[in-house]
Amino acid sequence: MGPNAAQAEQPKLPIPGVKNLIAVGSGKGGVGKTTVSVNLAIALGRLGHKVGLMDADVYGPNVPLMMGVRSAPSAIGERIQPIEKNGVRIMSMGFLNPGDKPLVWRGPMLHSVIQQFLRGVDWGDLEYLVIDLPPGTGDVQLTLIQTAPVTGAVVVTTPSDVSLEDARKAVHMFNQVKVPILGIVENMSYLICPHCSERIDVFSTGGGERTAREMQVNFLGALPLDPAVRKGGDSGSPVALQNGNDSHGAVFRELAQKMLDRVKETGPPVGPKIVISD
Ligand SMILES: Nc1ncnc2c1ncn2[C@@H]1O[C@H](COP(=O)(O)OP(=O)(O)OP(=O)(O)O)[C@@H](O)[C@H]1O
Ligand SMILES: [Mg+2]
User: Fold this and answer.
1) What is the pLDDT of residues 4-53, one digit of tens each?
2) What is the 3-state secondary structure (H, E, C) of 1-40?
3) Is the CB of 92 under 6 A from ligand 1?
4) 222 CA to centre of ligand 1 in angstroms
5) Does residue 32 have its Cβ closer than 6 Å to ligand 1?
6) What pTM did the predictor assign?
7) Cβ(35) – ligand 1 distance below 6 Å
8) Are 146 and 7 in contact (CB under 8 A)?
């Protein structure tokens, strides 16, 4: 479904019990949105918050693998129960359609799946619902942004020019629909050679921070390219679970804290105005 007038006029009704919706997007695919979403959600949980993770990549859901969840969710009445893992309540299309079989949906069906995930899931009381978006600036993004009061967006990019070009598009999209940008994350920023400890800028360097400055948005930090991050994702044991002060876990907790500081600055999401008269 495109950005037509009827959709644009729908009120952005809050999700009962959920205080903040945090969208994680990028223009380009494969830059690490799911990796950042999963680790950010775990880090927020480790910082003491009640956190959910909604996998809005309904065509290519990777959250179940990265979170190491294989079970199917149950339902109580009509309400789907999210699966709790690593301190995070999770919902993904991958729970309902496991395996390699692709799903083929048209716009209206996609729209109702996103609504189901937002409103038909028993999220309970959450301070933060992190939403892992599919790549690009398409129907899922629009449906989400136009129907739910998104607190803000985290835009993930690598330092390469192609990725940055697409990240700028994502920032513009969120700006157009008045979703505050919480910040840009530069993923796969550099590689530390395991043999000589030399820093190698595989995808160039500094582009995320520069782009953030140019677009006048926050820079949330740079994450190294590290096989441990990939292994953590592939094994369902994300690096954010690491406890040490100089671990990846600490890096993601710092990223999460910076994002929280920015959430405080932006204030509550734009929702319907409720006037209570006495
Ligand atoms: N910092 C990193 N270091 C090493 N590997 C990484 C890093 N970030 C992501 N990866 C790996 O790169 C691959 C792509 O990452 P991921 O699936 O998170 O990207 P994505 O943006 O969600 O992709 P898509 O657009 O397909 O949804 C994964 O195998 C992931 O484990
Ligand atoms: Mg992904």
Assistant:
1) 544 455 678 899 999 999 999 998 999 999 999 999 999 999 999 999 99
2) CCCCHHHHCCCCCCCCCEEEEEEEECCCCCCCHHHHHHHH
3) no
4) 14
5) yes
6) 0.92
7) yes
8) yes
